[in-house]
């Protein structure tokens, strides 16, 4: 097995032996296949191409050298909210997702989502891996939430993230037992699904790995890569999981090269948020985003998963399209996870029908044309980890406001998560990607403008966070359980006596 790992870790080179496509022709023959790979809890710091001297990611490094790289691509700083952006083209709060728990990760059931647009365009569709947009099978209005009932012909998805080896996966609602390591299984099943389909029909594959999200567990041959690296056991295990992703990306790329045909295949690699070892705000960051002494390499960025700085929200997005985007090219447009849906719709020739769409198409950026993203665009990043309605306002400023140059953030004054006191900070992340120099005194007018933009946005977003139907029944936010009142409980016990 070690020989196999070593072989696949060798560099994979894509070739472009055929001509560039006639874009936007509208014929089925010109519609490209699209493979969208999303990894979990991994970011810029986990690749050799970003300057990490320890980690081994030759295949991702090669993809980086042969693709269009969006260098200013922002997502939610954690998991389900990012996935909601990708599937809906909306900010996660406007797509029904405000957290990863308490059924607040349920994607709204009254909007058309990404795979449904692909079906309209005549594609066959599959999602493999981590869905995390439905804690239950049906939504509040009774419509289905499961991915195989919302546009995916086949959905093979992870039901929990504990079993990395020999896991049970759900295929269109039916559990199946698999042998092997989860990363290897997901990629193998993806290639099998492509192979078994009609070559005359274009396909869309959403491959969302459940690694390197914790718990840390990897095959021995990958752990051996970091045996003498000086890393802790947990750090080495995390890097081993990343290298497994890299190896499987290499296998996929080699496999695609061998079955190259007339129809072009777009390959996209992206991550869902900043890095974390343990699954929640890990990788050695303090609450103020600064790196702890034993923290992992972060490519000079501040913060990680569940945090509001560059290291939490700005993620890798590589796009390879033969004849169109197949050479190293950087793009600095202020882009977002909300832009995925309108971009894909633009590529496949379908017009989104959602009046609440908030994303912009990036197709012009892909084609090397002037961007269609407004220069004055503002992105709102928020980490909504409240549990009960009373806590909602106390989480209001767990946020940052992002323009194509600045980030306004409400920072905790201390390094602990228990520090509730916050202060405003403004960073010019273009010239200061590590966000070390607070320039709010130099640019008070910028800070004022962004703060004033945030207030009405929050009020509008907040209205959608408390669902009227559910609140009438329970008085709580979607999916939360009523908080027990200790005084009432004590009173009842006394009455019984």
TrEMBL record:
<keyword id="KW-0732">Signal</keyword>
<keyword id="KW-0479">Metal-binding</keyword>
<dbReference type="InterPro" id="IPR024607">
    <property type="entry name" value="Sulfatase_CS"/>
</dbReference>
<dbReference type="InterPro" id="IPR000917">
    <property type="entry name" value="Sulfatase_N"/>
</dbReference>
<dbReference type="InterPro" id="IPR050738">
    <property type="entry name" value="Sulfatase"/>
</dbReference>
<comment type="similarity">
    <text>Belongs to the sulfatase family.</text>
</comment>
<dbReference type="GO" id="GO:0004065">
    <property type="term" value="F:arylsulfatase activity"/>
</dbReference>
<dbReference type="GO" id="GO:0046872">
    <property type="term" value="F:metal ion binding"/>
</dbReference>
<feature type="signal peptide">
    <location>
        <begin position="1"/>
        <end position="19"/>
    </location>
</feature>
<dbReference type="InterPro" id="IPR017850">
    <property type="entry name" value="Alkaline_phosphatase_core_sf"/>
</dbReference>
<dbReference type="Pfam" id="PF00884">
    <property type="entry name" value="Sulfatase"/>
</dbReference>
<keyword id="KW-0378">Hydrolase</keyword>
<keyword id="KW-0106">Calcium</keyword>
<protein>
    <submittedName>
        <fullName>Arylsulfatase</fullName>
    </submittedName>
</protein>
<feature type="domain" description="Sulfatase N-terminal">
    <location>
        <begin position="32"/>
        <end position="350"/>
    </location>
</feature>
<feature type="region of interest" description="Disordered">
    <location>
        <begin position="473"/>
        <end position="497"/>
    </location>
</feature>
